[in-house]
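Re: [ENG-882] Designed sequences occasionally contain unexpected residues at chain ends

Forwarding the minimal case from QA. Structure tokens:
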């Protein structure tokens, strides 16, 4: 099989896979401060999922922790958790 034909087939297959995977993405919040640094499943009941979300925010009044609740095919719900202002974090590495 000529290299050009193999390249075309690979591009078509890769494009199809990307289109299929992109359809499963569900945006929750926009912007850099809402980028997810870590996630852990904290509750699962049938089609309902709750995740603890960690943001890598360091500035005051930026959300550091949140809960994302997914109920079936509904839009995910975002619940920010208040970070205590009197906690001092020190790097120990």
């Amino acid at each position: 099989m000529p290299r050009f034909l193999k390249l075309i087939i690979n591009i078509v297959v890769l494009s199809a896979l990307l289109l299929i995977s992109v359809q499963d993405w569900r945006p929750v919040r926009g912007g850099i401060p809402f980028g997810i640094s870590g996630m852990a499943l904290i509750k699962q009941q049938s089609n309902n999922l709750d995740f603890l979300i960690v943001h890598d925010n360091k500035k005051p009044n930026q959300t550091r922790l949140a809960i994302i609740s997914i109920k079936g095919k509904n839009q995910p719900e975002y619940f920010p958790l208040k970070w205590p202002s009197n906690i001092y974090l020190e790097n120990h590495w």
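QA comment: On inspection the terminal residues look reasonable. The mean pLDDT is 77. Proposing we downgrade this to a documentation issue.
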